[in-house]
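So, read this over?
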Amino acid sequence: MGAPTASSPSLSQPVPPTAPLFAISADSHVTEPGDCYVDRIDPRFRDRAPVAATDPRMGAVMEIDNGRSRIPYGMVAAAGRPPETVGPFEYTGWEQLHRGGWDPVARLAEQDRDGVAAEVVYPSVGMLLCNHPDADYKKACFDAYNLWMAEEFAGYAPDRLLGQGQTALRSVAEGVEDLARIKELGLRGVMMPGHAACEAEAGDYDDPRWDPLWRAAAELGLPLAFHILTSGNDQLGAAGYRGPKMNSFLGIMRGCQDIIGTLVFGGVFDRVPELKVVCVEADAGWMPHWMYRADHAVRYHGNWLGDRDLSRLPSEYVRDHVHLTFQDDAVAFRVTDLMNHRRLMWANDHPHSDSTFPHSQAVLAEHTAHLAVDVRDDILWRNCAELYGLSPETTPTGPGPEQGREDGST
């Protein structure tokens, strides 16, 4: 779209739309409070539970596993701050954080400020815990987090705070049990680890041994989400990247791309056609090209690269089964006709550093100005509302999740 002009909206000089656009964020986050884990964790792991601390250099941090690592909350909750103040060693005190990261009352006020009606809420600390090597520790942390999310945060306003649970996947059977428990807690979906803890025994996600988990998710109506930075190899400075750190930053979406390819080429959607997955925060503008190249690979190289026979082209599985969330990705809005726009879901990523908060309305007014109203509304709220079963009262007057779109399609 080119560089912003003096008259165009930007995060530094927002120009509000003439009328607010109804929007639901399909990917937002909490900043887990200091008592999130320690008050609820299996007592065997209480002395290792993530706890809040104040680092003399970083300020507010969450300390993981007795200091194995520290997560700087100034980086996690940097939404709306000037870029020059964002960095792991830019001191940020607890009083400088967005209170809505852990306080649901404050969070609703932050939604109102940003012009969003509801948010699908993911963890922050929990993202990085996905990469912890101790499967039992992860299980204990995730169980504690699920309780906090259900009882203390999402439960306060379940149609505006759509909490996502976590599972460590120490076994396929335990994963099925975790999904049932997450559903019982009233959470709306599951953030999956990029790699299951039992991958060595059960294989990668394309292995048919995982099919009971996929079927359970479909039967429970729980979308399974794969978020960036949860696969280990998509971390900043990971060994698989070369060159300056900025180059590795541009690669953080590759973990999600690998998972999509694993599910598609592994025939998972043939075996479990009801499965719905969400590719979270990896942008979406790249997907039309990925679909094109995937189809090309099957047509021209399937004879020697095809591990499994597929009943359809890869692009068809993506169009039917893979939802994508994105925030500040103007390209995605420009290529909606090259993919199934009914699988696109806008997000504000609040309160993370890539968030469009508190200027989401200005960003959306610019990025969606060229779209037909139906397409725009599908991406800004309707697709997300349908995927997560939001009640009609949460959506605007007119065609809602149960009534369908203006053109009669669903």
